[in-house]
Amino acid sequence: MIAVQTLSVAYGSGAKALDDITLSLAQGRRLAVLGESGSGKSTLAMAICGLLPTGARLSGHITFPSLNTPVLGRDIGVVFQDPGGSLNPVLTIGEQIAEVAVVHRGQSWREAEAHAARLLDRMGIPHPTEALRRHPHEFSGGQRQRIALAAALAADPVLLIADEPTSALDTVVQHAMVELLDSLVRERGLTLLFVTHDIALASMLADEVAILHAGHLMESGPVTQVFRTPTHAYTRALLAARLDLDTPLQHRLPEIGPNFTVVTPNG
Ligand SMILES: Nc1ncnc2c1ncn2[C@@H]1O[C@H](COP(=O)(O)OP(=O)(O)OP(=O)(O)O)[C@@H](O)[C@H]1O
Ligand SMILES: [Mg+2]
């Protein structure tokens, strides 16, 4: 579905945000792009979508072997980290979702609105027909992210690209969003590329993982292989940091130094 070959990206005269990235994603697979802040995850996602800002310099190749000149919005759906970035505040959500179906599926507005209501219902938005007439600010952050997902899927794309689809949400809402994404990918047979800095999320949702660090691809492969037997020190450090954060304080092992002595309550 996606073939990225020797991709480098630099913004203006700055250092390279991506340096010589080669990776591919097969149809129907789910890839998590993982790495710390500033490692180039969004740059990779935006480059694949053709959404890099003007002034960004790109070299290398990005191709979609199974797609014939893909159109963003029709063949590729995109969800941004900040749902505000995907939704227009002055249009009703119905107009925004229906527009995708009008433009890319050639539906009439009436058909597209019915389609939008069905999608909102699938996304778990209550009273979907009335919801169509409301504006983005009238919904919670979690609901806005579901609405953005509905708009991204309104033209029935085969590929979904999601940049940190859950990072703006609290843990409970995050979990529901992951379940929704998982079932949508299954029922629609989507190929998924998603960006995250959350290892737990990657292991829940992805088949494959690509680890970025300072614009370099440190390693990539099936999730179980990379997480069980990380070959790169950076991946091991990332996994260890995750373990530290998740382990309750009282369960963490104290560091044992050279002068460590055992002190029992009775001396
Ligand atoms: N529009 C831009 N103009 C200039 N530099 C940019 C731009 N966007 C990103 N960069 C730089 O490119 C590098 C990679 O940024 P990118 O946004 O891809 O990282 P990221 O992994 O998505 O980080 P985060 O987890 O914080 O979202 C960073 O050094 C960043 O400062
Ligand atoms: Mg980012």
Compute the gyration radius: what is it?
21 Å
The global form is: globular
Secondary structure: helix percent: 25-40%
Which small compounds were modeled alongside the protein?
Answer: adenosine-5'-triphosphate, magnesium ion
Termini, distance in Å?
66 Å
Mean of the pLDDT scores?
89
How do the helices and strands follow one another from N- to C-terminus? EEEHEEHHHHHEHEHEEHH
By secondary-structure content and strand pairing, the structural class works out as: alpha/beta
**Helix count, DSSP H or I runs of 4 or more residues:** 10
Strand order of the largest sheet: 5-6-7-3-8-9
* Beta-strand residue percentage: 15-25%
* Main β sheet profile: 6 strands, mixed
Number of DSSP E strands = 9
Low-pLDDT sequence parts: 249-267
Descriptive notes:
The chain is α/β, with parallel strands linked by helices and 267 residues long. The protein contains ten helices and nine strands. The protein has a six-stranded mixed β-sheet, with helices on both faces. A three-stranded antiparallel β-sheet has the order 2-1-4, covered by helices on one side. It is globular, with a radius of gyration of 21 Å. Residues 249-267 have low confidence and may be disordered. Magnesium ion binds at residues 41-42, 163.
Structural descriptors:
single chain; 267 residues; alpha/beta; six-stranded mixed β-sheet; 10 helices; binds adenosine-5'-triphosphate; binds magnesium ion
